Amino acid sequence: MSRESSYLRHPFWQALAVLVGSYLLFKFGIGYLLPAIGVHSAPVPSSVLLQYMLTVVVALLLYVSTSEDRWTRFKEPLRQVLVDPDKRVLRVALLVALPLLVGFLTYGRVRADVGAPPSLRSIHPAPPNQITFRGEPISLTGLENPLREHGSFEEHLAAGSTVYVQNCMPCHGDRLDGEGPATHALNPVPANFTDNGTISQLTESYVFWRIAKGGPGLPVEGAPWNSAMPAWEDLLTADEIWAVTLFIYERSGSTPRTWEESNEGEGH
Amino acid sequence: MAGGSGFRFARCALGMRSLLASLRGLRIVAAALAARIPGAAWSMPLPVGLSRVRWMGVMIAVLVALLPPARLAPAQDAASGEAIYRAWCLECHGAEGRGDGPAATHMLPRPRDFVGARYQIRTTASGELPTDDDLMRVMRDGLPGTAMPGWPNLSDQEKRDVVAYIKSFSPFFERETPEVLQRSADPGGGADRALAGREVYGTLECARCHGEQGRGDGRSAPTLEDWRGFPVRAADLSEPWLFNGGMGADAIHTRFLTGVDGTPMPSNQDALEAGVVTEEDLWDLAHYVAGLGPAEAPELEEVVRVERREQLPDGPADEAWDDLPRFYFPLVGQIVEPPRQFSPTVDGVWVQGVHDGAELALRVEWHDPSNSPDPGWQEWQDKIAGALYSDESAIPVEPLPDLLALQFPMTFSDGRGRPYFLMGEGRNPVYLWLWHSRRGAVEGRATGLGTAEVVDSGAGLTASAEWEAGRWRVVFRRPLAAADDGMLSFSEGAPIPIAFFAWDGSSGETGTRGSISAWYFIGLQPPPSNAVFMAPLVAFLVTGGLGMFAVRRAQKSYRG
To answer: Considering CB atoms only, which of A103, A120, A184 is closest to B540?
Structure first.
């Protein structure tokens, strides 16, 4: 049997290969390879990565220790490094390199560096029951988009489209995916309407409230918000806000949450 | 675009007919024919040693390699393109394709006028139409530095249909078949080549528009306009990530030969033919220009690391700044409160910071082709105002200064809750460092856009500034401690929110019109301490000791 295949069949090297392979998969595969074939994905956070890797290590240890023979063979390379006279150079090298690596990693952690504070925010804050819009009280509970009942849908859509490109597009993007020409300068990033975690979770009255009151109108509970969303109340009329609301649902292919669903879910 | 297999088959046949016309499609046609008549493949003698199943696998693999589906379906459907155009393109490019949709008045450069059909980014000779591939590339990748995004939400077929539709706006496309301009191969860059390129930069008088350092501040820069009379900014060659045609020597070289049609950027084909420059010269120039800026767009880090030093640098040009890290923050137009600015001059700032335990010095750098107020830019200011501002407010007529505002919260909290980023709001004001290109810096306070007022806290804020070859460098200095409790003190360790607001006077920017950033942070390094080396040392010794112990134990048990 050739040397290569004896490596492949050796439990120690098998375990090492699985360990390295799964690290690469978690670290790069999930976050970067999946989007390459068109599947939506995101990089794995380091705390989750650690959890995954621990699970893999436990599984590997279970596997190698299930048979006495495999366990003995698994330990063999370790024993060689620790004991064999002909592995002396490797042994000394490891005894120097590993502590140096640990010291270096420790230095990286304790070195004084001022990081940005974590930005925590809940995505959909609870809306108030009633708001004051340009001095007029508007009750949000049970409120539907009035434009869906009156006039021509096509005209409302066209009006909403114009309001959108003149006001919202720079941040929320031509494609309504939160990737506009000004997006790169904003933090937190603008909402992506084509993501089904955003407007399709919300009633149209909620969207009306967010457009009208913007970041400055977010409730104090659960602060800090730090949203860059302007309060459009002074700049757009109620009809314009309803029209653009209609537009973002229609063009992003989303449907608003209805009040019935909202009451069943009680989520928002 | 879920077409049935019959539909796809018909499209494939159509595609083949059009491909037959062009010689370079022959290879694909042959393969496609084989695909249509599988019997032909079966009748071929089978290579020895391959079973039928394996042979079929090989055939399929070969076909897949030869026939990416995009190649199979080059048919274009202008009617389907029109529907997509109406949904996604019309608001900027206009119902008639004249580049005059409802969003167009805010944009500079203006959206492409498909009727005029002068296309800037092409691979064809100057004055010629773009190829379909050129248009597809723009739709796929967008045009950096403009409002045109890429369209990954449209399939290749949809993009191809849109291309067919936008070509139908201009009769020119029926008369001409554009061809890709042949260019010489890149002989390669290198330091001496770039040096040679600098000479070509002089020969071709690039500095006349782009300026000595390439920051778009040349003598002619304030006079530039496109074929429709809209002002055009000379490209800032030191910010290549905003090049409309993409960065890198190859893209730059393409622009040299094709020109940027409709703008004052000419093709150098004539200079080449007249013997003013050689093929090699243009490649040298391309490498020189590519070297004027970074190879990649600057990366955004959220925190300006303010290092602690014994001595603070003297002024904006002090070489001590060169040793300190620079942090880039992108700026975009103030597009919320009218009057607005959607296409501002300043697109980013670089910030460096240093402190000595008592005083803080921040250097802010940004590119601005004009040292405003400058009467030489008055004509430019009027043109910008006419192109961008006429629909929202009165046009400023007098020469305006350049301004910069640094925003901080009034007092330090945990750095998480911050005032509204557009100069705060009623309950939550911002503390400002306001710099004026002719009057220096003062402290200020604001509770919303346009409400900034000077407040002198007696903290002793000073600024020194220098404008050179299209770049402002301003150094602010202030004692860390505030004069009174109501004002922000800068303390070590915790990140302090900071945001930027810049105005280019020569583009008529004043008040709410200017460039803004989101909130970022500055973090002052605490004084150096040897304690930071203790933990790594302990970790090293403990790990090493454990290792030795493990080896001893193992050797003992195995040998003894």
So the answer is: A103
